[in-house]
UniProtKB/TrEMBL annotation:
Source organism per UniProt: Balaenoptera musculus (Blue whale)
Keywords, in A-Z order: ATP-binding, Cholesterol biosynthesis, Cholesterol metabolism, Cytoplasm, Kinase, Lipid biosynthesis, Lipid metabolism, Nucleotide-binding, Steroid biosynthesis, Steroid metabolism, Sterol biosynthesis, Sterol metabolism, Transferase
GO cellular component, one term: cytosol
Single Gene Ontology BP annotation: cholesterol biosynthetic process
A single GO molecular function term of this UniProt record: phosphomevalonate kinase activity
Name by which UniProt lists this protein: Phosphomevalonate kinase
Localization in the cell: Cytoplasm, Cytosol
Pathway: Isoprenoid biosynthesis; isopentenyl diphosphate biosynthesis via mevalonate pathway; isopentenyl diphosphate from (R)-mevalonate: step 2/3
Entry EC number(s): 2.7.4.2
UniProt xrefs under PANTHER family: PHOSPHOMEVALONATE KINASE (PTHR13101)
InterPro entries (alphabetical): P-loop_NTPase, Pmev_kin_anim
Length: 117
């Protein structure tokens, strides 16, 4: 499945992005799982300045406390770390285990989305 997806992306980087929005109109799109620079580029080209990027980060320690274990060949693949070197995201949400801080950050993001409706 991964190989098939990679082949589709190589032939047409916007293939999956177009499938998401095909035939549907929404005032706000929350695309929760973009994993590649080409995904972000597609949305920026298709929707321009209204595109907002959100990066959720967590320390390795907090991830391990949740049961995550690094798996070579999976966690270092493009599908998992292809956006690690993207310069600036519009929003960075820190999910290090402080629930109150996480809620505050999400509230700011929700307020922003509501202001655009």
């Amino acid at each position: 499945m991964i190989r098939w997806g990679e082949e589709k992306r190589q032939a047409d980087p916007g293939f999956f992005c177009r499938k998401i929005v095909e035939g549907v109109s929404q005032p706000v799109w929350l695309v929760s799982d973009t994993r590649r620079v080409s995904d972000i580029q597609w949305f920026r080209e298709a929707y321009g300045a209204v595109t907002q990027t959100v990066r959720v980060v967590a320390t390795e320690q907090s991830r391990q406390q949740r049961g995550w274990v690094f798996t070579p060949g999976v966690d270092d693949a493009e599908s998992e770390c292809g956006l690690d070197n993207v310069g600036a995201f519009d929003w960075v949400i820190e999910n290090h285990g402080d629930e109150q801080r996480l809620e505050e950050q999400l509230e700011h993001l929700i307020e922003f989305v509501r202001s655009r409706l």
